[in-house]
Specification:
Shape: elongated
Strand content: 25-35%
EC number: 2.10.1.1
Function: Catalyzes the insertion of molybdate into adenylated molybdopterin with the concomitant release of AMP.
Number of domains: 4
Largest sheet: 6 strands, mixed
Number of strands: 26
CATH superfamily of the largest domain: MoaB/Mog-like domain
Pathway: Cofactor biosynthesis; molybdopterin biosynthesis
Bound molecules: ligand LQZAQKY5, molybdate ion
Catalytic activity: adenylyl-molybdopterin + molybdate = Mo-molybdopterin + AMP + H(+)
Oligomer: single chain
Radius of gyration: 31 Å
CATH architecture of the largest domain: 3-Layer(aba) Sandwich
Strand order of the largest sheet: 7-4-6-5-9-8
Pfam families: MoCF_biosynth, MoeA_C, MoeA_N
């Protein structure tokens, strides 16, 4: 297969990928999920005319002119209303959130009163009618749509849903992403590598990226470089109902790179293998039964950069979320060489300068180096076939954080 451009690869990844079905979850589990249907208020808020201040509920006509002396005939607290009626020359002690009693049409705030020894009060400032009263339904009314379908349930949306009388919400199901690391050389994090071994560092980074984006993760561990072992892990991923199966390593052309063969033996239909990008060239993608399969390269930076570019949009699509890469313009702090036939994603730090953002590329871009990926907050995006650039030239950056 030939190298396909990055943009075409993304189009093929997203082709036919539709939001998942719905499920109902309690509010406490709904943060960050996507609302699957418009949400209608089940109640009116506030449900009654409520005081917005601590003070006295009075008749505006009595306090149009200060000073005015009023008899205090009772109290209305939040959760416990005053059952009677406020008559002329009367006041009811009231607190924030409490129902405004019948007969009263304005609130005299406590700071504008003085208490007399006999229990009566003096209004020391005049008040207009309707002051400090929140009318019933000010926020929303029963039957109104309070949240649109597709809304990402952020803190404010969750509180609004609760206020509107909902304890559970219909949300788009979270995709299940299975992760399979391949390689005889790998030991799990915390393990003691043998003389020719290294730690499998990719799975945890990819798992974090997927779960931060709203996916559930099934880590199927490390399988050896054997076609049948990889095939067995693929079957395990399918049996668990994975929506996306991510393999790590074994994507290239070496004698021990067997992911492609294992996918073939399991009947996968690959859409592409190899992209015109650096790092990440040997990435493969296709369908495996009902799942999508993303074969990421083993080099740690390649795997994570590919996951940023392809796994994140795929998860967003399944979750019914819009995915917008954070692309910005910056000025190069150092000259850069011409690119080859692939689009380059160059680890860099982007900082604010006097004329806007400044991008400083790391001098060594080896795709095994997690230290520079962790230090980078952006990737400079340089098109395939781009000529050399001088320091000070404009460039495009993809922000990572
Ligand atoms: N003759 C060619 N050789 C290579 C090519 C090529 O086009 N022709 N492409 C190179 C590129 S680009 C990449 S990227 C790598 C990708 O190789 P694989 O996907 O087959 O990955 P592996 O060979 O399995 O491993 C590469 C490297 O990464 C380490 N690795 C693997 N898995 C993990 C893991 N889970 N955690 C941490 N590190 C991992 C592995 O030990 C190797 O060092 O191929 C080039 N070769
Ligand atoms: O894609 Mo490889 O990622 O260039 O090292």
């Amino acid at each position: 297969m030939t190298l396909i451009p990055v943009d075409e690869a993304l189009e093929r990844v997203l082709e036919g990928l539709a939001p998942l079905d719905h499920e109902t979850v309690p509010l406490a589990e709904a943060a960050g999920r996507v609302l699957a249907a418009p949400l209608t208020a089940r109640r009116t808020q506030p449900p009654f005319d409520a005081s917005a201040m601590d003070g006295y509920a009075v008749r505006a006509a009595d306090v149009a002119q200060a000073p005015a002396v009023l008899a205090v005939i009772g109290e209305s607290a939040a959760g416990r209303r005053f059952a009677g009626k406020v008559g002329s020359g009367e006041a009811v002690r009231i607190f924030t959130g409490a129902p405004v009693p019948a007969g009263a049409d304005t609130i005299l705030i406590q700071e504008n009163t003085e208490r007399l020894e006999d229990g009566r009060i003096t209004a020391t400032a005049g008040v207009a009618a309707g002051r400090h009263i929140r009318r019933a339904g000010l926020d929303f009314r029963a039957g109104e749509t309070v949240l649109e379908q597709g809304r990402v349930l952020d803190p404010a949306a969750l509180s609004l849903a609760a206020a509107a009388g909902h304890a559970v919400l219909p949300v788009v199901r979270r995709p299940l992403v299975a992760i399979i690391a391949t390689g005889d050389e790998l030991v799990p994090p915390g393990g003691e590598p043998g003389p020719d071994q290294i730690v499998a560092s990719n799975s945890c980074g990819i798992a974090a990226l997927a779960s931060l984006d709203g996916a559930r993760v099934l880590d199927l561990g490390i399988v050896p470089d054997e076609r049948q072992a990889i095939a067995a892990a693929l079957r395990q991923a399918l049996a668990a109902g994975s929506d996306i199966v991510v393999t790590l390593g074994g994507a290239s052309v070496g004698d021990h790179d067997l992911v492609h063969q294992a996918l073939d033996s399991e009947g996968a239909r690959l859409s592409f293998w190899k992209i015109a990008m650096r790092p990440g060239k040997p990435m493969m993608y296709g369908r495996l039964e009902a799942a999508r399969v993303l074969g990421l390269p083993g080099n740690p930076v390649s795997a994570l950069v590919c996951a940023h570019l392809f796994l994140r949009p795929a998860i967003a699509r399944l979750c019914s979320r819009l995915f917008t890469p954070d692309l910005r313009q910056a000025e190069l702090a150092a000259p850069m060489e011409a690119t080859g036939g692939r689009r380059d994603y160059v680890r860099a730090t982007v900082t604010a300068g006097p004329r806007g953002l400044v991008a400083t590329p790391f001098q060594i871009q080896d795709s095994s180096m997690l230290s520079t990926l962790a230090a980078a907050n952006a990737l400079i995006v340089r098109e395939a076939g781009a000529p050399a650039s001088e320091a000070g030239a404009r460039c495009q950056v993809l922000m990572l954080r």
